[in-house]
Automatic annotation (TrEMBL):
NCBIfam families: HTH_metalloreg. This is Methyltransferase domain-containing protein. InterPro entries: ArsR-like_HTH (IPR011991), HTH_ArsR_DNA-bd_dom (IPR001845), Methyltransf_11 (IPR013216), Methyltransf_Superfamily (IPR050508), SAM-dependent_MTases_sf (IPR029063), WH-like_DNA-bd_sf (IPR036388), WH_DNA-bd_sf (IPR036390). Pfam families: HTH_5, Methyltransf_11. It comes from Sphingomonas paeninsulae. Signal peptide: none annotated. It comes from the Bacteria. GO terms for molecular function: DNA-binding transcription factor activity; S-adenosylmethionine-dependent methyltransferase activity.
């Protein structure tokens, strides 16, 4: 149990107050935090441990990196508000320097993302050329999902595009990807876009790092064809969805482009409506709607499924 005295002891240090202020601006790795504070990583790690032990910050491992964020606890949030009131109008040289170095961290992330996109642009353009324009796909996704998003989980978030599209309509958004590199790209892109209310986590689609019934909307956009066992992935999504929650899958209809399996690591060459429907039933979901988007050598499909709401008990 966290003692109140431990919380105030944790805050009674200028460096730890700086850390809290920085984390409330954006999620940072330990290395990035050390860069902004101009302190060694071991020293920063010690301060972070004190803040985490006091319930004021959280740590999350992503590959070989550890990322830090402010804790969303019932005690931490009002304390952060108190700090805002106490420090209003008191910006000093140290604070301005921290903000400038934080901007440098943002710039480093953006530069890394630009290099990655430049290296892979030809590959992605080749895939996109095989199907209808992505703008048409995104417009149909908006039409299917509408504005009632609730708690959104984007699985296989990649560059965070789905969070950009639907995050503003969501109460909260979590993006999950197994690749630390892709998560760093998404973090850079979302930080630059000004998107709010999002967090990113590393995880496998068949073992999601989220609690049962913690999502109202789940999106799998061009992800399922990379999964060797789609049925296991959909069962995991069924666990994740709250009663009445919705799953939107965007992927390819069945096709015979074998080179995508060989060159691009596609584990599945698209999906049929029948196969998708059987997997939904096994996962405790019901297929509500299908959409077909022709316009290229590959046909894009949208499948919308729902986890049935709990039945109300009938009085005897």
């Amino acid at each position: 149990m966290i003692e109140v005295i431990d919380i105030f002891r944790a805050l009674a240090d200028p460096t730890r107050l700086r850390i809290i202020a920085l984390l409330r601006t954006m999620e940072l790795s330990v290395g990035e935090m050390a860069q902004v504070l101009e302190q060694s990583q071991p020293r920063v790690s010690r301060h972070v441990r004190i803040l985490c032990d006091a319930g004021l910050a959280t740590r999350r491992r992503e590959g070989s990196w550890v990322f830090l964020a402010p804790a969303p606890s019932a005690l931490a949030v009002p304390l952060f508000g108190l700090l805002d009131v106490a420090t209003a109008g008191q910006g000093d040289h140290q604070q301005r320097a921290d903000v400038a170095r934080l901007a440098a961290v943002r710039a480093d992330r953006t530069a890394a993302a630009s290099r990655y996109f430049a290296q892979h642009a030809d590959h992605w353009d080749a895939i996109r050329s095989l199907h209808v324009a992505e703008s048409a796909v995104e417009a149909r996704m908006h039409a299917v999902l509408g504005d009632n998003i609730g708690r959104l989980v984007d699985i296989g978030t990649g560059t965070g595009r789905m969070i950009e599209l639907f995050g503003s309509k969501a109460a909260h958004t979590v993006g999950i990807d197994r690749s630390p590199e892709m998560l760093r790209l998404a973090r850079s892109k979302l930080s630059e876009s000004g998107a709010e209310k999002w967090e990113l986590r590393q995880g496998d689609l068949t073992a999601l790092p989220l609690e049962d019934s913690s999502a109202d909307t789940v999106i799998l956009h061009q992800v399922l064809h990379y999964i060797p066992t789609p049925e296991a992935a959909l069962a995991e999504v069924g666990r994740l969805l709250a009663p009445g929650g919705r799953l939107l899958i965007v992927d390819f209809a069945s096709h015979d482009r074998e080179e995508l399996r060989v060159q691009d690591a596609h584990a599945r060459l698209g999906f049929s409506d029948r196969q998708m429907g059987l997997w939904f039933v096994a996962a405790g979901l019901s297929l509500d709607r299908t959409e077909t988007l022709d316009g290229g050598e590959l046909t894009v499909k949208l499948w919308l499924a729902t986890r049935p709401a709990l039945m109300k008990a009938i009085a005897a």
